[in-house]
Amino acid sequence: MTESPFKILTDKPMDRRTAIGTVGGMLAAGLGVLQTSCSPMASAAEKEKAKLDWEAYFQGHFQAMTPAEKEATIQRLERSYELNTGNRIDVSAQGARENVLYGYAFNVSKCRGYMDCVKACIQENNQDRASGMAYIRIHELEKGSMNFEEASDDFFHQVPAAGHFYMGTQCFHCQNPPCVDVCPVKATWMEPDGIVVVDYNWCIGCRYCMAACPYDARRFNWADPLVPAEEVNPNQHYLGNRLRKKGVVEKCTFCVQRSRDGKNPACVEACPTGARVFGNLLDPNSEIRWILANKKVFRLKEDLGTEPKFWYYMD
Amino acid sequence: MRALVLAAILLLAACGGDHKPHTTLLATLQQSGHVEGPPALQVDPRTPHLTKYPCAKCHDKPLPVLKQTKPAAHWEIKLLHAPGVITECKTCHSETPTESLHLLNGKEISFDSSHELCAQCHSKQAADWRGGAHGKRMSGWAADRRVLNCTGCHNSHQPRLSPRWPALSRMQAEETP
Questions:
Q1: Is there a single domain that holds both residue A303 and residue A190?
Q2: Closest residue to B170, CB basis, from A101, A154, A290
Q3: A118 — phi, psi (to 5°)?
Q4: A33 pLDDT band (50/70/90 cuts)?
Q5: Residue of A268, A279, A284 lying closest to B33 (CB–CB)
Q6: Which residue in chain A is spatially nearest to B39 when comparing CA positions?
Q7: What percentage of chain B exceeds 90 in pLDDT?
Q8: By residue range, what is the domain housing residue B77?
Q9: Which of A300, A206, A299, A197 minimizes the C-alpha distance to A251?
Q10: How many CB atoms lie within 10 A of CB A12?
Q11: Of B22, B32, B166, Cβ closest to residue A156
Q12: For position A152, what pLDDT does the model report?
């Protein structure tokens, strides 16, 4: 972000109405920032904060950024957080590995409803504590049926309950994701390794994606997310668990900050029963491929053609 | 190279093109690569976790002598494993040497290889465990396949897992205002 933000006005052909609109928008948003940055009373830290806010306002789309711009963006996020809280975070923009397509398998026979995965996911992904947001739902279903309307996902009793079984749902990272198709601003897309991600800076909060998702996988921040400072996971990814703001949509990212590092997502690591399996679908010798080849697998709402990369199986 | 072609096919299949024939993800995957099965498991050793090990700490005399000794040992172990089939210690434990278990054919094995013993009856679970569909994984997806063996999760004397409370309550959780 070394270029002048006003460059977009001079570089791009633009009609009069758009130009006035753009300048007006800039002025409205920049007024407060400018006030701080020009005020002789403001401290150096406040001025730096204002400068970073100003730059963030003109941040481009993540996919259109050059590597240098990505680097500058994550540095700004780190510095901003440090100025605001005094704590450090480490934000990554690591890209997809080659020849990797992530897939997930869930053993319905093994899940016992412990919800260790839900807890680990909330902590790993810095999810809002105030609203009790959780990407994962564990549904308690009566044996002999698979009716989610009659399932409970807010059970709290000793588990497994007699006569019941458990099924977890989360973002299935569909290979044909309807949520991506409907986004009017292209703030959500599928990465080359198959992870469906959101650029929280680009999301306008229209929630079309939430309406389009047949699996109720996306979550909306109705208020500024609350994560106690001592509970913030500092190992973050731009497209993953970095701190969100009010009015944006978020979802499971297969823990992009972990999976691109070769680790398993937090839910897989936390599950004590081994009911959760994660791996590379393009590696014919991976465990996930063994399961697809040797187990009776199924996916939810397969007839919709969304091609979830998340399979269920039984012993 | 093959994987690249496959990736390209997958991307094409996924681009949401309105008029292209839709190749299913699963079918496409099944055409890919040479399947040799997952590489061999690296089983986390059990002996470092055993509290009464090595056995020779106490088993320094013949068993009939030890049985007369006070205080009694192993009294807390209740055998609730295939009642009627496994009824005594020596089905799995060796008297001499005490440091090992034995298979039904008499072959001595270490406590670290106890999964071989379990696999004699639980062959289906063992096959799932080797393939990747059973058991706790200790390494990431891209690393070697480090796993716990059967006794890493199951108490061999009472293998059924007990019920417990969930890690958190979602009862108060409410997302919309």
A1: yes
A2: A154
A3: -60, -45
A4: low
A5: A284
A6: A285
A7: 48
A8: 37-153
A9: A197
A10: 10
A11: B166
A12: 94
Residue A2 counted as domain residue: no
Determine whether the interchain pair A295/B32 forms a contact, defined as Cβ–Cβ distance below 8 Å.
Answer: no
- What share of chain A in percent tops pLDDT 70? 87
Q: What is the CATH number of the domain that holds A175?
A: 3.30.70.20
What gap in Å lies between CA A52 and CA A37, rounded to an integer? Answer: 10
More confident residue, B130 or B6: B130
| CB-count burial class (<10 Å; 0-12, 13-18, 19+) for B97 | exposed
Q: Is B38 on the interface with A (CB under 8 A)?
A: yes
Chain A neighbors of B140, CB-CB under 8 A: 258, 261-264
User: Pick the residue with more confidence: A192 or A22?
Assistant: A192
For residue A189, the Cα-to-chain-centroid distance in whole angstroms is 11
User: CA-nearest residue of chain B to A308?
Assistant: B25
Cβ-nearest to A292 among B29, B38, B128: B29
Q: Give the chain B residue whose CA is nearest to the CA of A181.
A: B16
Mean model confidence pLDDT for chain B: 84
Number of domains in chain A: 2
Q: Report pLDDT digits (tens) over A283-295.
A: 999 999 999 999 9
- pLDDT at position A69, please? 96
- In chain B, the N- to C-terminal Cα span, in Å, equals 51
Q: How many structural domains is chain B composed of?
A: 2
**Cβ-Cβ contacts under 8 Å for B16 (sequence gap 6 or more):** A176, A181
| B89 plus B65 within the same structural domain | yes
**Nearest residue of B to residue A116, measured between CA atoms:** B167
Lowest mean pLDDT among A36-45, A118-127, A133-142, B34-43: A36-45
Interface size A-B, in CB pairs within 8 Å, comes to: 164
